[in-house]
Amino acid sequence: MKAREGIAPALHALSRPLWVIALCSLIGVAYLGRSALVPLALGLLLACVLSSVVETLCRYRVPRGLSAAILLVLVSLAIGGVIEMTWTPAQQWLQSAPRVLRTIDHKVRPAQSVLQRLDYIAKRATALASSGGETPAAVPPAPPAPPPVLTPIEVFAATGWVVVGTVTVLAFALLLLIAGPPTLARMTAALAADLRAVHVLEIIEAIRLEVGRYYGMMLLINLVFGAVVAGVMGLLGMPNPALWGAIAGVLNFIPYLGSATTCAIVTVVALVTFDTLGQVVLVAGGYIALATVEGHVVEPLVVGRRLDLNPVVVLAALWLGGWLWGIAGVVLALPALVAVKSARRMSSRANRPPMFP
Q1: In 10 A of CB 236, how many CB atoms?
Q2: What CA–CA distance (Å, rounded) separates 254 from 331?
Q3: Measured distance between the N- and C-terminal CA atoms of the chain, rounded to whole angstroms
């Protein structure tokens, strides 16, 4: 009896280091296996977003496989339509990138010259103080490195990997949608005891509903937000307003960083397009006003405040997701936080003592 009482504190003391080791191992596996795990994670996210619609259609006796296939085809057509709509103006801006850079350099040259002069004075003062008044010899700058040239084989390989990843995402999402909650219940019951299986299934169902609800509402909000941004940019005289509206709607799925990136993009475009500073300020201020109304009025009213997340936690998750999986990690960071918060809420609700004995 005394031996058991001595073992329990030792196991409790070892539990925290074991959890740290397990977490580090999980991060290492996620980093090393990102090429295989990213399509599966994106497929799981897509299945969570569309699962509520599939379940609703099943109640009206629409076959699960048929409704899942139709939804995925509609999603693919919608993404293809957005790409087709923005492809031509995006190509035009990429082709005019050298001229845009020259225009930006010409407009910011006065401020740049002042900063260069201040930097030169600071360097001279440092050099005079360290050498006792002797002027150091100027070091010629190194020649710029030649830009890398992509071969046709590299372009073909990159395009092929994109196609394979897209097909994997769609296929995995289709299989998950066809399987549905009954298959998930059987898998959970086979892996755990009855009561624990029920609890795990409740948590998974809550995560599925919460993630699907959140991203379904965010999709509607961002569609309207992108259309409003496009209209305002068109009224302010910005070229290709549909392109900036599409960028605003897509990047708005990324909290904080998405709005900041879109604001920087439209400000640079306005700086290149207009001659007066007032128009540039009007474009930047107009987008900031729209983003503020969307983030602080519309989104809390429509989505609700149940999923309010700490901004520090969100930014840390975005940084960690970007470091692990790049752009896909940034996209998946917020759903992971929503899933964790939903799981914690369900666990705390299950562990809460009943109100009436």
Answers
A1: 17
A2: 7
A3: 34
pLDDT of the residue at 227: 92
pLDDT tens-place string over residues 51-65:
888 888 888 888 888
Instruction: Check if the beta carbon of residue 233 is closer than 8 Å to that of residue 241.
Output: yes
- Give per-residue pLDDT as tens, 318-333: 888 888 888 888 888 8
Q: What is the DSSP string of 294-353?
A: IIIIIHHHHH-STT---HHHHHHHHHHHHHHHTHHHHHHHHHHHHHHHHHHHHHHHHHSP
> Is residue 45 scored above 80 in pLDDT?
yes
Give the amino acid at 316: A
CB neighbour list of residue 110: distance below 8 Å, 6 or more residues apart: none
For residue 307, the model assigns a pLDDT of 60
Q: Which residues contact 330 (CB under 8 A, 6 or more apart)?
A: 254, 257, 318, 321, 322
Task: Tell me the three state secondary structure of residue 152.
Answer: helix
